């Protein structure tokens, strides 16, 4: 498994653990990530999430309370490419 695939799997596990849903790995778009998987910025649909944790055990990453949060929800203007416009209110 590649580092990119491991980051998506970590994001998927964190979403399931915290928010109770498990999107397909193909639905997770990585925006930024550290190779040790402790910091991952990613998008699922119109929502952007930030995962921050630490390495534990044998190169594992802690997934649990306070490791993930939704940081933004966007609408996308597809006429101008992938332009993210924050939804306010």
Cα(first) to Cα(last) distance is 40 Å
The tally of beta strands, per DSSP, is 7
Rounded to an integer in angstroms, the radius of gyration calculated over CA atoms is 14 Å
Poorly predicted tracts of residues: none
Instruction: Write down the overall geometry.
Output: globular
- Round the mean pLDDT to the nearest integer and report it: 85
Largest sheet: 5 strands, antiparallel
Oligomer: single chain
Q: Helix proportion of residues, in percent?
A: 10-25%
Structure, explained:
This protein has 89 residues and is of the alpha+beta class. It has one domain. The protein is built from one helix and seven strands; from the N terminus they run H-E-E-E-E-E-E-E. The strands form two sheets. Strands 1-2-3-6-7 form a five-stranded antiparallel beta sheet. A two-stranded antiparallel ribbon has the order 4-5. A hairpin with a 5-residue loop joins strand 6 (68-77) and strand 7. It starts with a helix and ends with a strand.
